[in-house]
Design brief:
The protein is built from 17 helices and 13 strands. The protein is of the alpha/beta class and 400 residues long. The protein folds into two domains: 214 residues, Rossmann fold (3-Layer(aba) Sandwich); 162 residues, Rossmann fold, CATH 3.40.50. It is elongated.
Length: 400
């Protein structure tokens, strides 16, 4: 079966979960083409190398597509006219969406043109906002091609009017958290049509409970956090909590993996807190290198208040690699962390409370920490395995 994925840009550093999905499909022998509505990422070559992406299967927007657009205007004039009317019908009252939709028309037509030639069995809209433009064209002019659409937290925050309109025509709808269903209902989607499929991670089976020593060296616990370095991800809170922890455990260390515009401010905070010798910034690193850091660390911290946060893959990966995970409450987190059983969800979003919970856990007996770690690994393996999640997609597509 030939499958086409439509997204905004592929690959990108913050969307490793997209690569995980596509790679699993390819591992199973499916022919997958990926289309991006924007120009390729500036680090496209290094990203494809590091993430194991076949660049020949990826088609992001190119300048040549824009140059060809005048010719496409004539050849696909009916489709273009229909798309313009569709955009006006659904986005006329929202200037931002209207403008962006019109700017993306050449990209939508170019992707539709390619799909019209290769004719995959399934087109999957990996994001359900602006890629819905492509979905509209396919279902109107190539109705024999089945189209599925994913609507995640980013789509719900974007609230593109075309998403709701196209959801009534999509052959199948997916979301990745039960918590999303309430918001989908509020936005007038038919929630009974949605299939909840958690995003899975790759289980490499290299780590076992015996690999990581929980003879917890309380004089030198190792902490780690990993995220895009933006204010909303709460890495500054991690630093303030870590500073308090070092008062009782002065030999503690903290690893920060990730990159972003807030990095400079975070480094300044590290200097102000006199933590330069205790904190290491790793920047954006390959996944295997991140996994190695998880295996060496004891405690993972993520104190995010990012509006689009839903069941972060990085927490799943840290849990699977044996870290004790602490995070603040974000939508759907209870589907991943069962508090005091396989990790810790802290409702109070202030430094003193965060410090209290982290410190109490460090003081707990080694056997309890080990029990939490093993339980976390087993839970992730059972409920967030990419082989199972992709299996659910394939089962649905085969039904179609």
């Amino acid at each position: 079966m030939k499958i086409a994925y439509v997204t905004m840009q592929y690959p990108v550093p913050s969307e490793t979960f997209a690569v995980i999905e596509v790679n699993e499909l390819k591992r199973r022998g499916f022919d997958v083409d990926i289309y991006g509505m924007r120009f390729k990422h500036r680090d496209f070559t290094s990203l494809t190398d590091n993430m194991g992406v076949d660049p020949s299967s990826v088609s992001n927007l190119k300048f040549i597509d824009l140059l060809k657009f005048p010719k496409d205007l004539f050849k696909f004039r009916e489709e273009l006219f229909a798309l313009v009317i569709w955009i006006l019908n659904h986005s006329i009252s929202n200037f931002h969406h209207l403008l962006k939709s019109f700017l993306l028309i050449p990209s939508a037509i170019s992707i539709y043109k390619d799909i019209n030639v290769c004719k995959p069995a399934v087109v999957h809209l990996f994001w359900g906002h602006y890629p819905a433009m492509v979905g509209f064209l396919i279902k109107k002019y190539q109705p024999d091609i089945d189209v599925s659409m994913f609507l995640g937290s980013h789509d719900l925050e974007t609230n593109y009017p075309g998403s709701l309109a196209f959801s009534n025509n999509a052959d199948y709808l997916f979301t990745h958290s039960k918590d999303n269903l309430e918001l989908l209902n509020e936005l007038n989607y038919e929630v009974e049509k949605f299939n909840v499929v958690h995003r899975g991670i790759v289980l490499d089976n290299k780590y076992s409970e015996n690999d990581k020593s929980f003879q917890f060296k309380t004089e030198a616990p190792v902490f780690i956090t990993a995220s895009r370095l933006i204010k909303e991800k709460g890495t500054d809170k991690v630093l303030y909590v870590f500073k308090e922890v070092t008062k009782n455990w002065p030999n503690s260390t903290l690893h920060i993996a990730g990159d972003g515009p807030y990095k400079k401010q975070l480094k300044n905070i590290v200097k102000e807190l006199n933590l330069v010798d205790r904190v290491k910034f790793h920047g954006h690193i390959e996944q295997q290198e991140l996994f190695k850091l998880f295996e060496e660390a004891h405690i993972f911290l993520l104190f995010s208040n990012f509006k689009g946060e839903r069941l972060p893959n990085v927490i799943k990966e840290a849990m699977y690699k044996g870290c004790i995970c602490f995070t603040t409450r974000t939508p759907g987190i209870d589907e991943l962390i069962q508090n005091d059983i396989n990790g810790f969800v802290i409702d109070e979003d202030n430094i003193s409370s965060l410090v209290k919970y982290v410190s109490q856990t460090i003081r707990k007996p080694d056997f309890f920490l080990k029990e939490v770690s093993v339980t976390a690994k087993e839970f992730v393996a059972e409920n967030f395995n990419v082989e199972k999640s992709i299996g659910m997609y394939l089962k649905t597509w085969n039904k179609i």
